[in-house]
Write a structure and sequence with these properties.
By secondary structure, the protein is α+β, with helices and mostly antiparallel strands. It is built from 8 helices and 20 strands. Strands 6-7-8-3-9-10 form a 6-stranded mixed β-sheet, sandwiched between helices.
């Protein structure tokens, strides 16, 4: 789908900012969301990013009104809305499993929200036609959901969400059930619709590539707490800690003894491995963690930061190979090369010191 979207009316009741003030949600003795403070600007695309159980879907469901708060408040400009039922908030929602009515046609699925709002039939017909054209499904309007592909069903769900001209669109892992090609296609479409319709969107995902590609800002969550909020560039390039680094693609998280530390320059060393990097936080311990992306390694020796590995596993990824190697001391190193390498082959790698981020904190569980 490449044509420009036709704008089916402005979103209903646009706002300046939506504010979550100290929002908490507990399930018995378990705290799923812990005093979340977050402001979402009107027109913004915000991604909530993190692994399963981090609190991102809980935050979305609290916004939607599907879960009551156990602490805090939610404000739409000067209006407190956390006491309103879901249907009174004027939000559209797109679910992971599409949540379409299997016995209703595409047209009736898209028009369902308008029907329960009592929109007159002529206006409803026009708005449904516009929404179906927007997602290029006008020729599928007569079909049942079971007759559509997964990508088409998700487009129906998106059309149903935007046809009500919502103040806010909430998306809960909407692409996770699609294959890789469809995910890329739908990712582009979601961003296009967000921009052309002037929507405000909150998007839940565990996929850092999706978050980077779609969002204006990313909120990284862990255990119900915010670890970092920033633009995709900020979170990708300047993670605040090893948890965010590991989640944003710094696959090499190497905890090593500190050999020297002056200013922001840190030298980490053990027998057979010596790395110079840049400190990202103040620390006083005798060990630290070097965070390095696989694609920041280059093949061949450098004046500093030469790493010698023996290839263990090499995966063909088209124009490059994703490789797992091991140092003499048993450290696992992940790197990428453009030339073919084979298990058992010895490779000498280098990495610029400014691409080695050094953190004082240890490696979080699940990221080693």
């Amino acid at each position: 789908m490449t044509h420009e979207a036709v704008l089916p009316g402005r979103p209903n009741g646009g706002f300046q900012a939506l504010r979550m003030d100290g929002v908490s949600r507990r399930f018995g003795s378990t705290t799923a969301l812990d005093r979340l403070d977050l402001t979402i600007e009107g027109g913004e695309f915000l991604a909530l990013l993190g692994p399963s159980g981090c609190g991102k879907s809980t935050a979305l469901n609290c916004l939607a009104g599907l879960l009551p708060l156990t602490g805090g408040s939610i404000w739409l400009d000067d209006e407190r809305i956390d006491g309103l039922p879901p249907e009174k908030r004027g939000f559209g929602m797109v679910f992971q499993n599409y949540a379409l009515f299997p016995h209703l046609t595409v047209r009736k699925n898209v028009g369902f929200g308008l029907a329960i709002r009592g929109v007159p039939k002529p206006e409803m017909t026009q708005r449904v036609d516009e929404a179906l054209a927007l997602v290029e499904l006008a020729d599928q309007a007569h079909k049942l959901p079971g007759q559509l592909s997964g990508g088409q069903q998700q487009r129906v769900a998106i059309a149903r969400a935007v046809v009500i001209r919502p103040r806010l669109v909430l998306m809960d892992e909407p692409l996770s059930n699609l294959d890789a090609k469809l995910r890329l296609q739908m990712r582009t479409e979601i961003r296009r619709l967000h921009q052309s319709l002037g929507l405000t969107t909150v998007y839940v995902t565990h996929d850092q590539e999706e978050a980077l590609a779609l969002a204006d800002r990313i909120v990284v969550l862990r255990g119900g707490l915010v670890e970092q909020i920033g633009t995709p560039e900020q979170v990708y390039t300047y993670p605040l800690n090893t948890y965010v680094a590991g989640f944003m693609g710094y696959r090499n998280l190497l905890e090593l003894p500190v050999a020297a530390h002056e200013g922001d320059e840190v030298v980490l060393a053990e027998p057979g491995l010596r790395l110079t990097g840049r400190a990202q936080e103040r620390f006083t311990g005798t060990s630290a963690v070097a965070a390095i992306r696989p694609d920041d390694f280059t093949v061949g020796p450098r004046q500093s930061n030469t790493v010698r590995v023996s290839v263990e596993v090499a995966e063909f990824h088209g124009r490059e190979m994703a490789v797992e190697g091991i140092t003499e001391s048993g450290r696992v190193i992940h790197f990428r090369v453009s030339d073919r390498v084979r298990p058992g082959e010895k490779v000498e790698l280098g990495v610029p010191p400014d691409r080695v981020l050094v953190f004082g904190s240890g490696v979080p569980d699940g990221l080693t």
